[in-house]
Amino acid sequence: MAGRQAKFNQHVLVDTTPLPADIPPVTEIGASSAPLLSASFFIGARCRAYNDDFMQCKTEKPGRAELDCLQEGRRVTRCAKSVVEDINKHCLEEFRLHWTCLDKNNQQLWQCRPAEWKLNKCVFDNLKLEKTIPGAPPNETPVHLRKHQKYAHRGP
Amino acid sequence: MPQDLPPSGGYGPVQYKRNLPARGFRPAVMLFGVAGIVTYGFWTLGKGIREHNELAREKLWSRIHLIPLLTAEEDRDLARRHYADLARERKLLGSETSAYNSDRYVRPTFAIAPNSVTK
Lengths: 156, 119
Prior knowledge:
- The structure holds two protein chains of two kinds.
- Chain A is an all-alpha fold.
- In chain A, 53% of the residues lie in helices and 0% in strands.
- In chain A, helix 1 (33-60) packs antiparallel against helix 3 (70-104) and helix 3 packs across helix 4.
- Chain B is an all-alpha fold.
- Chain B is 56% helix and 0% strand.
- Chain B starts with 26 loop residues before the first helix and ends in a 26-residue tail after the last helix.
């Protein structure tokens, strides 16, 4: 399929044949963009190795990656799924607060810092995952921890 | 008839200079004041740009952490459709014939719509 799913005016005509039985099934992540954005740095913190493995596989097998990297892809999805499930288990309230805020604010991270600080603290206390931005200047406060956000419409 | 003559002692001085009050600060003070305001503005602008760069870095890395996940999901979907296509072809033609002279995976340009509504 090119780009988007096949859709006709009258009916939804999608090929629903499942994967062959010799390929193990995996539960998809099943989260929309705002929760994924909210959890992205924790996914990165826990699943960095799996992600790098998958991307290396994609690079090393040009043209065959869609079919040959399914195993690495399943690992990536399982790891990300575990992060989202853990956050749901321990920090559901803070998580919801943050991603609804992101949804309401055009998914601009700097509009939702108070909710993000609460989520980061809860996730660090329970899951020991910390948000770090790679490549940030070492002598400055990381941008997500600054008390005054220059571009926020209201609040810090 | 006596002629008109200047008054005794001569005329008073003629005012040919403008008599406007010199308002505001001295020019040098104005110059340095404006320079200070502009410097402060550019300093603030620089800080804003730095913060903007950091926010862009944050957004970029949040996406980088998600890309393998999203790619994996899409790849599974493509593989599922590909294998379904191959199975359909085997069932209909009894053989697998690739249109391409390579074993690379090619994203199909056209999708085969099923006879009946499947969903």
